[in-house]
Fold:
Amino acid sequence: MPSLGRLHLITDTRPGRDPLTVLRAALPVARAELVVQVRVEDDATDRQAYELARRVVALCRPYGATCLVNDRLHVALAVDAAGGHVGADDLPVRAARRVLGSAAVLGATAREPGSAAEAVAAGASYLGVGPCHATTTKTGLPAPIGPAGVRAVAAAVDVPVIAIGGVTAASVPALRAAGAYGVAVVGALSGAADPARATAELLGALTC
Ligand SMILES: Cc1ncc(COP(=O)(O)OP(=O)(O)O)c(N)n1
Ligand SMILES: Cc1nc(C(=O)O)sc1CCOP(=O)(O)O
Ligand SMILES: [Mg+2]
Structure:
């Protein structure tokens, strides 16, 4: 399995957002450090998810960036993405691993050490851990766990921990110090006036 990129860009498909424009700005800056997770709204059709994922895979390929698909693993397989990401409402990690195969990248959401260790034992190759900070991008989340929560999970597993939820370049150093391997963002790039510059700032904070 190739090494995992440290900057995960999750597509923002809310009305008025333009995920492919953001991606085109981020790719030349982050190149193989970029992991793009195709995430669509729950009411999007599989065809819409497929069309977006197909375009993302094609855009990522020349840069060596990685494309994953959130939730819809059949779409990941259909577009030959590198893997997928699952959480509590999705296929169980062991079932997801069976679907994707042993070589795929498989991310799982974990918010505390016990479920984190279970997800790794079931076949997760990285963990998405959060919400680290308050976020307006997704509703219904538990209270933020902060760097201390990330530290507890990172100490319990031997796979990369990707911190998520309200992450900005300013919050990256504390998350890295807590053991995060990388970060996943929506708003920090999708809402940026200059996504290329925001990508450079996030990468700078991740790799210094
Ligand atoms: C990197 C990363 N971490 C966590 C999540 C959240 O996944 P999940 O809990 O399944 O929630 P949805 O994203 O499906 O709404 C993620 N997508 N990526
Ligand atoms: C999709 C998602 N999952 C989360 C979790 O904690 O499981 S937080 C989140 C949204 C992250 O968006 P932003 O970077 O704009 O805060
Ligand atoms: Mg999910």
Residues 27 and 176 are 22 Å apart (CA to CA). Residues 10, 109, 130-131, 135, 137-138, 141, 164-167, 185-188 surround 3NM (ligand 2) (CB under 6 Å).
